[in-house]
Each structure stands twice: as C-alpha cells, then as structure tokens.
Amino acid sequence: MTRIVLGIEYDGSGFFGWQWQPNRPSVQGELENALSKVANHPVSVICAGRTDTGVHALEQVVHFDANVERDLHAWLLGGNSYLPDGIRIIWVKQAVRDFHARYSAIARLYRYVILNRPVKSALLGKQTTWCYHPLDAEIMNKAAQHLVGNHDFSSFRAQGCQSKSPVRIVHFVDVYRDGDKVIIGICANAFLHHMVRNIAGVLIDIGLGKQAEDWTLVLLATKKRELGGVTAPPYGLYLESVYYPACYGIPKHPAFQKLPEDAKRFD
Question: How far apart are CA 93 and CA 4, in angstroms?
Fold first, then answer.
C-alpha cells in the first residue's frame, strides 16, 4: 500500500460539511469518488479536521492508502478532472514515515472573515459573514488575547460537542481590519465543535460595544455555553492550514512562524 497526502481547498457553501452523508453532497464523498476513479478501486480518505456545512478550506490536509502505483501528477490532474467546481486538489505528496493527517498534526489555523460595511456583497454572500454596524477591530483583538493559552473552553463549545475534554491550547489569535473586512485568525492544537464560530460571535458582540473587552475572560471562568452569546454563521469560516512536524515535509503556512517554541518541539 502507498500512502498519499493531499492539500485540498473547497468552497463549503455547496456541501453538507466534510463528512460523508447518505444522499447529501459532502466534500469527503466527492473526493473519495474522484480518487476511486483514478485508483480504479475504492478509496477512503482521512482529513486533518472535519468542517461543518458551509465552512470552507484553503488548505485541508488529507491522506489515503492506494494499492496501485500512480504518478503524483496523475492523482492531481486525474483527481481534479473528476471533482466538482467547488473542490480542488492543490498539491500531492507521498507520505513520509508514519504520517497521519489527523494524529500527526500539531496545530490548526482557522480564519474567520467578516464583511463590515453597510451593504451586503453580491459576490461574497457565502464566503463572508456580513455585519452592518461598524466593528472595533482593535478592541476585538485585545479581547481575543485573553483566549491565548491552555484553557477550559466549555463556554465556547457546541452543546452537542462529543470531545472528551473541553481543554485546548490556543497558540495565538489576531484580529485586524483589512479594508471593509475584519479578519480573525486563530491557531490552536485542536478545536472543539463550533469553537471558532462561538469565539467569533463573542468577539463580534465586543466589537459592536454590546459587551466589555474582558467578556472573553469572564466566559472562560464561567465555563457555561449558555452565557456565551450567539454562534456566528459558518460562511465566514475557513480552515486555513495545518502544522506538522518538519520530518513529514508538509508545506508550512507563514503564520506558523508565530507558534511558540514548545508547540514546535517535535520539529
């Protein structure tokens, strides 16, 4: 068996999330169907992190095992020829050593994009979250810094989250304005269900002046999801990149230069 690693980008607005579902279009289902045609045998894929309905990816990382030999270019061109327009394979590598898309990952980087202007976009309706009233990105960034570190994120997890522990390590958060967009970038070792969207909802309320800057600190202390405000829509959320130890040879996003040294200890 040969293990192949892929970098995938997709527009999640046309799919019912990453995970395969019967009679519903999913990213996993479409990708497995395409790769199975190239391999001429059934292919199952494993991703770095499952995304929900409407959530996008700039660089999801996936691996699969094939019992046929194919040129790496064949997986790229052949796979893309069978994929719908909303999904593309952007790079292909042969796995090194014991690589596993999920369990070998050290950190994940997400981006949440808010279109902050009086008028909705005719083009970006399913790629951004629209907020009419002006947001104070500087205050949002200050509030976000309370989330950095090893914390119990019970106030920021979905009610039905199945993770055994609510504890996660947030390595860094940046909130900044880029023209008429406010962007939240957040990197952690792993994320709870709806964690980024719940954080975005809290930061939006702070940016609108509905809550004080230290509300994030208060919510961490209370550990109660019902006090944590509204879950932000999925459309503005992107899985941006995944960080792996250098031995696996997976491309590294420039933002990962901000990772603390203890998070990169396996490098």
Answer: 6
85-135 pLDDT, tens per residue? 999 999 999 999 899 999 999 999 999 999 999 999 999 999 999 999 999
Q: How far, in Å, are 34, 123, 198, 206, 219 from residue 128 at the CA level? A: 28, 10, 16, 19, 26
For residues 259 and 39, what is the distance between their CA atoms, to the nearest angstrom?
37
Pick from 241, 228, 122, 128: which is nearest to 182 by CA? Answer: 128
Closest CA to 154 of 198, 105, 220: 220
Active site residue 52: yes
First to last CA, the chain: 27
Report yes or no on whether pTM surpasses 0.85: yes
Strands 237-243 and 107-116: antiparallel
Catalytic pick from 52, 136, 152, 174? 52
Contact 1, 66 (CB under 8 A): yes
